[in-house]
Specification:
The complex is a heterodimer of chains A (about 260) and B (about 325). Chain A has about 260 residues and is of the alpha/beta class. Chain A contains six helices and 13 strands. Chain A has one domain: Rossmann fold, CATH 3.40.50.620. The termini of chain A are far apart. Classes of the chains: A alpha/beta (about 260), B alpha/beta (about 325).
Chain lengths: ~260, ~325
């Protein structure tokens, strides 16, 4: 049996994001991509489960960027056994969650994993999160905001975070789909040398898929948030700024 | 065409969450402009007294042992059945840990469009537009909502909870749970509340909050010293808590705690929407961040684009550290 991990590349939100002239997508040429941070946690959680149970880990992704190989080889270098890449005529486009899930569902069914792990959410999942969407399409039990997992006979026990530190414990019959919020450990680091080694020694399996008819999220326009409530900026040397901050605090009786 | 709005009421152990009242508030406003009504679906076990306090036009009450604790599969089946039966124009679901399990799954199964992370829902030029907050809060997406069915998952704190407060429900209708609730593949086995913390950040008057910008656990000492000098307590954004640098009781945000101190000094926090949800109501927010476009500056009263260490050290010197 295997554990499937779905990795998705998303625009790095730490970088400046420009909107394309069409107004309905980011300017993809200026975007730099990173693996969705929560997907990194999903991979880590799967690797931890592998250490406990010996299950193989398969990483799966839809290559919408043309750059997915790097992410998949990195996952192999971290300890995954297989990598599967879905390719099609959608490079450089923004696929809706439902389109992604629609592409992934038959491939996941074919892999017949015990568990599917992916990130709880992504910065661009306008039409909802992948785990519940895929869970609904596969008709497998699913839940998100998971911060801990344990595999047992025919079930997976998960800890789901609610709010204010309240935790809910659930038991899902397997196969199940989990949206991981945080792995039990910080996602492991892998040296570049090991990634290079994975590139030499392993192969990424490719699956050709048809682009779904309605593949983009439905929206009329993207825009930057209005800066109405923008902060008053304090400028100058660190000591000038520190002095200003203390003045502000003094004026309010906070210092 | 149906015009009424169905709201999934969220409750935990018999207590309605704030976001439920916010959703009913915005639903009432949208329904009023169309002369239609708002249904609230309350799921639980032994929660009939709670149903009487829901300020909707009609409260649909479904009780079943599987709904006692939140069970994502049970809630999904229940909402799906009710949506099929009552055929509402819009279904509003809170974009919370509970709601996220339900909204996308129900929308997918019904084949209805979903707009997630809604922070605004308003009429523009005769059309309803739902605005979704994407890319860590740096970009908004306007999504037209037609007259067809749609599911909207709405961010907590995006709407006032006042609007919904006064009106008692006109009627409560008890619904028969769908048969699937007796054959679930998901079981809720327990709920754990956090142990009493050493410091209750929700009661703190002043908070020094640190984020990823602090870089390493060793650097927390600087925040601790600064907090001591200001008579504040140290809190953090999620990544630091996940890394185990600070206990969960110090986490501010959607999955952590909501705080409203007189001072919130945010050091190296970019201000992801999930973090802002927990602190935007602070009386005075001062943010220090290297990225001039960090969303934290949209909610801060004062901002400093600088290395947090330079500013923290300069403050510390003046505080006599």
């Amino acid at each position: 049996m295997t554990l499937a991990v779905i990795l998705k590349q998303v625009p790095d939100v730490v970088e400046e994001l420009a909107i394309a002239p069409s107004g309905t997508d980011l300017d993809r040429d200026s975007v730099s991509y990173v693996v969705n941070e929560f997907d990194e946690h999903a991979l880590e959680e799967a690797l931890l489960l592998r250490e406990a149970t010996g299950e193989d880990v398969v990483v799966v992704g839809v290559d919408t960027t043309g750059e997915l190989d790097q992410a998949l080889y990195t996952a192999l270098a971290k300890g995954a056994q297989r990598a599967v890449k879905l390719v099609g005529d959608f490079e450089g486009s923004w696929l809706s969650t439902r389109a992604l899930a629609g592409l992934l569902a038959p491939v996941i069914r074919e892999l017949s994993p015990r568990l599917v792990l992916t990130g709880v959410q992504a910065p661009d999942d306008l039409d909802g999160q992948l785990a519940p969407t895929l869970g609904a399409l596969l008709d497998w039990p699913h839940t998100g905001v998971v911060v801990g997992t344990e595999l047992a006979d025919g079930v997976v026990r998960v800890r789901k975070e609610l709010w204010g530190g309240i935790m809910l414990d659930l038991e899902l019959a397997t196969p199940a789909v989990l949206g991981i919020q945080a792995a039990r450990a910080t996602p492991r680091y892998v040296p570049v040398g090991r990634v290079r080694q994975a590139m030499r020694e392993s192969t990424i399996e490719e699956v050709e898929v048809e682009t779904p008819v309605e593949s983009a999220p439905k929206l009329s326009r993207l825009r930057a948030p209005e800066a109405a409530g923008r902060a008053e900026m304090l400028t100058g040397s660190p000591s000038d700024v520190a002095e200003r901050i203390l003045e502000i605090l003094r004026a309010r009786g906070l210092y | 065409m149906a015009e009424h709005i169905l709201v999934l009421a969220e409750q935990l152990e018999g207590q309605l969450t704030d976001v439920t009242l916010e959703l009913i508030g915005v639903a009432r406003r949208l329904a009023a402009s169309r002369g239609s009504g708002v249904d609230a679906l309350v799921l639980g076990d032994g929660v009939s007294s709670l149903a009487a306090t829901v300020p909707a036009d009609r409260t649909l009450l479904m009780e079943h042992p599987a709904l006692r604790l939140f069970n994502p599969e049970a809630a999904q089946r229940a909402l799906e059945a009710v949506a099929r039966e009552t055929s509402p124009w819009l279904v509003l679901v809170p974009n919370t840990s509970l709601g996220m399990d339900v909204a996308a799954a129900v929308a997918t199964r019904l084949g209805w469009p979903l707009v997630a992370y809604c922070q605004a829902i308003e009429e523009r030029d005769g059309q309803l537009v739902a605005t979704s907050q994407l890319f860590g809060g740096k970009i908004l997406a306007d999504c037209p909502v037609g007259t067809d069915h749609a599911v909207l998952s709405v961010l907590a704190g995006a709407f006032s909870s006042e609007a919904a407060a006064p009106e008692p429900p006109a009627r409560i209708e008890r619904l028969t749970p769908p048969a699937e609730l007796d054959a679930l593949r998901v079981r809720a086995t327990g709920l754990e509340r956090p142990e009493a913390a050493d410091v209750d950040i929700t009661r703190a008057e002043k908070i020094v909050a640190v984020g990823r910008g602090i870089e390493s656990k060793d650097n927390l000492e600087l925040a601790e010293e600064l907090a001591e000098g200001l008579g504040a307590v140290v809190a953090a954004s999620r990544p630091l808590v996940d890394a185990g640098w600070l206990p969960r009781s110090r986490q501010v945000g959607k999955s952590g705690l909501k705080v409203k101190p007189r001072l919130y000094l945010a050091l190296g926090i970019s201000g992801a929407p999930e973090h802002l949800e927990g602190m935007r109501d602070a009386e005075l927010i001062i943010a220090v961040n290297k990225d001039p476009k960090a969303p934290i500056f949209d909610v801060a009263h004062y901002g400093v684009v600088a290395d947090l260490f330079d500013v923290a050290e300069a403050l510390q010197e003046r505080l006599g550290g």
